[in-house]
Design brief:
GO biological process, one term: response to nutrient
Pfam families: E1_dh, Transket_pyr, Transketolase_C
CATH class of the largest domain: Alpha Beta
Organism: Flavobacterium bomense
CATH topology of the largest domain: Rossmann fold
Enzyme class: oxidoreductase
Number of helices: 26
Function: E1 component of the 2-oxoglutarate dehydrogenase (OGDH) complex which catalyzes the decarboxylation of 2-oxoglutarate, the first step in the conversion of 2-oxoglutarate to succinyl-CoA and CO(2).
Strand order of the largest sheet: 11-10-12-13-15-14-20
Distance between the termini: 83 Å
Oligomer: single chain
Length: 802
């Protein structure tokens, strides 16, 4: 039985000071919401979504929140962030204005709309801060319930740190696993599958997660009766209630306007989760949303007069005022004085934020106006330039876009004049400087990026033969990894007891335990979430998605959360998660898909690696564990039983990332492919050589990043012809590969023939060997495609086949 913590030394005067301070934070937050909406309506800000109506429960959550804890939340948590000291009034408005200075707007430097919060986990060099010495918030995302999967991993990390010994630098990330992961969500978003998937997984795993549901009965304009069975999320989750002999949740309910009960409820929840690692769900109901969903519209359109009257009466701040007066915390006059001062403080903070945002741009406006005036004096298009100057100068609150648009339009007017050089240089310099503020940190810009890892070749015995199953190379390399890196762990469907469906983890759970090599349920999105959350807390997780086509269940989390994490925090957070899956060339509609075009275009910010065999795959895992970036590794599904040489230096050899490998030198045509298809390409090349066609074969090895040394174009410069072979649909990954070669590498300069692709059919493969043969590129398809391209070059030597 857990006893609630009490503070018997707290005097009434101390209590009064604490309550008054809470009230000040609540009213400051409310005034920020009210003034923030006005800033949107007057055009200074683009859009606003605010936390009004949720202030008091967030104060209670903040009181129970300790150093080392993590929040994974909802875009209405501004009061909480203010209460833990991580959001000032000025920073709130800097976010509203989209200020792209990380010092002014530390949440995302204007890359996300206001209401999306984060703390900084990294030092300037990309190394970890001591996360146990600060209160932490993982970076918010907008997709509803998208914060849930990562919440699971943030909580699971505490379990790992408590129960797994030998993790290096563990004290920087955890105090013996005592940290709680705090989740917040709006009641309407509990209708999302990600919510239910996460709730179920947390109940199974028994991790220290406290989940707050802010329930104001609406999802934008849609009432709870259209959202939730019985209009009550905690009612329908009763089956998750933890009993004495079961796993599950502790479920608590509390009214969102009852300050005293909220404090007690959150203290109780924290004790349960922190000490027992039992997840807790807090249903905070009877909340309001005074300004409606966002600045896009008014809630008067969809709430009736009775509801609006109730919301006015049961506004949480109004109820807190009444309670304070009733127990003599403060008089109405004292409260009025606090309210008045809050209005002044918020107005001053708003002005400071606006000035900090605008003044640098005005200086840039003055700079370009001065340059354009100088140019105009000697230009034959003086009058037109002066008009541009007048138009730009008349803008009282200019944007960087307006400055650059003016400069670029003037440049067109002076193309044949001497002043063109000076203006062109200014535009290039200004664009480069400014673009970085909007485009940096998609990938790591630290010394721990993937390009810092040097190639290490596998070492073989002198008499080594290709007699080892590929899956055994993976297995023995994972064994070396788990020994070398105690912070690594792997989890996925069938990854534990049976050692994964292809035996690449055979015996690993028995050797390293169920926490480090774990089976999980069929829930791909939260498998990814486990990985993201644990990686955010310093662990090195490997999340296994059983098959490539199952990745689609998790693609939203990969795309919106993991891929954008470093970008949307401007390099202040990282989650170096490795995602392991397998795919390509299996037979049938399911498991045979290779949706690489979809994947690489959805997850920019995650490296995509496509090894042709298990030695290459093992080398990628070794490389990734030496850097700080997330990656997807797609193993060849039909390669686990193929024979390879057994390396001697498991855990040490490294496949370079972004570097292609030339598998065969040739003179007539360059064949580019990756993964399982390469084996078909190699066989076709042998048969083509028999009739005098000498192909050069290049294994791309990774799609993101792509051929950083530009070796493909060097090959084309020699052969003057290009064929890309891919088992994705037409225009899928092959289109990306061509764009990289032809446009980025300027491969068109060296082509004597039209570059071509050979892909799978647009439909999915029918079941069986014939289905594969008639749906995806075959050896004969490759042979005849190359032959046809050579027929164009020399019809007499290579007459038409058909």
């Amino acid at each position: 039985m857990i006893k609630e913590k009490t503070n018997t030394t707290l005097t009434f005067e101390d209590f009064k000071i604490e309550v008054l301070n809470d009230y000040k934070i609540a009213i400051l937050s409310r005034e920020c919401s009210l003034l923030g909406r006005k800033e949107v309506l007057t055009g200074k800000a683009k859009f606003g979504i605010f936390g009004d109506g949720k202030e008091v429960p967030q104060l209670a959550m903040a009181k129970a929140f300790q150093n080392g804890d993590f929040r994974s939340g909802y875009y209405r948590d501004q009061t909480f962030m203010m209460a833990i000291g991580e959001l000032s009034i000025q920073q709130f408005f800097a976010g509203l204005y989209g200020h792209n200075d990380i010092e002014q707007e530390p949440m995302s430097a204007g890359r996300q709309m206001g209401g999306h919060f984060a703390t900084h986990s990294l030092n300037e060099d990309g190394s970890w801060k001591n996360l146990t010495k600060q209160k932490n918030s993982s970076a918010d995302i907008s997709p509803t319930a998208g914060q849930m999967p990562r919440l699971l991993g943030l909580a699971q990390a505490s379990k790992i740190y408590r129960q797994v010994s030998g993790i290096p630098n563990a004290a920087n990330f955890s105090n013996q696993g005592n940290e709680i992961a705090w989740g917040t969500i709006g009641n309407a978003s509990t209708s999302e599958g990600l919510f239910f998937e996460t709730i179920n997984a947390a109940g199974v795993l028994q991790v220290p997660m406290v989940m707050s549901i802010w329930d104001d009965e609406y999802g934008i304009s849609v009432h709870a009766r259209h959202q939730t069975t019985k209009e009550n999320i905690s009612e329908i989750l009763k089956g998750y209630q933890k009993d004495k002999n079961t796993n599950g949740f502790e479920i608590l309910r509390v009214k969102g306007w009852d300050y005293a009960d909220l404090i007690a409820t959150y203290e109780k929840a924290a004790t349960i989760a922190r000490e027992n690692h039992t997840p807790v769900l807090i249903h905070v109901n009877e909340l309001t949303q005074p300004q409606g969903h966002s600045s896009s519209g008014s809630h008067e359109r969809y709430k009736n007069t009775d509801r609006l009257a109730w919301e006015k009466d049961y506004d949480c701040i109004r109820q807190m005022r009444l309670w304070m007066i009733a127990i003599n915390i403060a008089s109405p006059e004292e409260i009025e004085a606090i309210d008045t001062q809050a209005k002044k403080d918020v107005l001053e903070g708003k002005k400071a934020a606006w000035n900090a945002f605008l003044e640098p741009i005005i200086e840039e406006q003055k700079e370009i106006v001065a340059l354009l005036q100088k140019i105009a004096e000697s230009s034959k298009n003086k009058e037109a330039i002066l008009k541009h100057i007048v138009d730009l100068s008349s803008i009282k609150s200019p944007l960087k876009k307006e400055i650059l648009v003016t400069a670029r339009k003037v440049l067109r007017l002076i193309l044949n004049e001497n002043s063109k050089t000076e203006l062109s240089l200014w535009i290039k310099t200004y664009t480069a400087k400014t673009q970085k503020n909007f485009s940096s940190n998609l990938f790591s810009e630290t010394d721990l990026n993937v390009f810092s890892v040097k190639k290490v070749l596998p070492i073989y015995a002198e008499d080594a033969k290709e007699d080892t199953d590929g899956r055994m190379i993976l297995r023995d390399n994972f064994d070396a990894i788990f020994t070398k890196y105690p912070e690594t762990l792997i989890f996925g469907e069938d990854a534990g007891a049976i050692g994964d469906v292809n035996q690449g983890l055979e015996g690993m759970q028995e050797k390293y335990g169920e926490l480090r090599v774990a089976d999980v349920g069929i829930r791909e999105a939260t498998i990814l979430g486990q990985g993201i959350g644990m990686a955010l807390r310093g662990l090195r997780p490997i999340a296994e998605i059983q098959y490539l086509d199952y990745l689609l269940y998790a693609i939203q989390i990969m795309s919106d959360d993991l891929a954008t994490l470093r970008y949307r925090t401007v390099g202040k957070q990282k989650a170096p998660l490795i995602i392991r899956t397998r795919g390509h060339r299996l037979e049938g509609i399911w498991h045979s898909g290779s949706p690489m075009g979809m994947i690489i275009n959805a997850i920019r910010g995650i490296h995509v690696l496509v090894p042709r065999n298990m030695t290459q795959a093992a080398g990628f895992y070794n490389s990734l564990l030496e850097c700080d970036e997330p990656a997807l590794v797609i193993e060849c599904l039909n390669g686990y039983r193929l024979k390879e040489k057994m390396p001697l230096n498991y855990g040490e050899f490294k496949t370079p990332i972004g570097v292609v490998e030339t598998l065969k030198q040739g003179t007539d045509i360059t064949l580019v492919s990756y993964g399982s298809t390469l084996r078909l390409v190699q066989q076709a090349a042998k048969e083509l050589l028999e009739i005098g066609i000498d192909c050069e074969i290049i294994d791309l090895q990774s799609l993101l990043p792509f051929d950083i040394n530009q070796d493909v174009v060097k090959s084309i410069a020699k052969t003057n012809r290009l064929l890309v072979i891919d088992e994705d649909v037409p225009g899928g990954a092959s289109a990306y590969v061509l764009q990289q070669i032809i446009e980025h590498q300027d491969g068109y300069n060296y082509l004597d023939s039209k570059p071509q692709t050979l892909t799978a059919k647009a439909h999915r493969p029918a079941y069986g060997t014939d289905g594969d043969y008639f749906s995806k590129p075959s050896i004969e398809d490759i042979f005849e495609k190359v032959y046809g391209m050579m027929n164009e070059v020399n019809p007499s030597k290579y007459p038409n086949l058909y």
